[in-house]
Amino acid sequence: MFAACAFPVHTWSILILMWELPAWIIRLDLWELLGVIAYTQAFALVESLIILLGMLLLTALLPRKWFRNGALDRNKVVALNTVVVFSVTVWVITAQVNYEVVRTLSMRSLLPWLIACLASIALIYILVYRYKKLETLIVSFVDRLLTLATVYLFMDILSILVIVVRNIGGSAWPS
After folding, report:
1. pTM for the full model?
2. What span, in angstroms and rounded, lies between the C-alpha atoms of 153 and 164?
């Protein structure tokens, strides 16, 4: 489930980094640039862990009898949580890209979009719950994400090390 949570968050943060990188290269020296990237990736790790804990908490709140009589197994839980995370991520990215528009909307104008968000998540959730092939496809995709999640985790550890060095030794280039 960590791979399913880390993939969209880290991928989006890297895309945003790449978008901003040309401007940062002009303004920042290498150590400052490494610091900005490190903070961004460390924050992506924190976001991924918060999402993972939320999904684990939701899973823990499900009735035990669903697990005992086979209504939910590991694969189904992973597939269902993955579609929820990916669906919410798509909606959040859409809101972030259209921030200026979303910011000006009233609650009454925003309500249809929130309903559409919840309806799309529910629809995808139902489809995955009902169709074993779709569940298998999603679980297979998440299994393949494990390698990428390992790379992201390695980048996160390096980012945390950069942050620690920057905060212990100050913001100057380490000697």
Report:
1. 0.80
2. 16
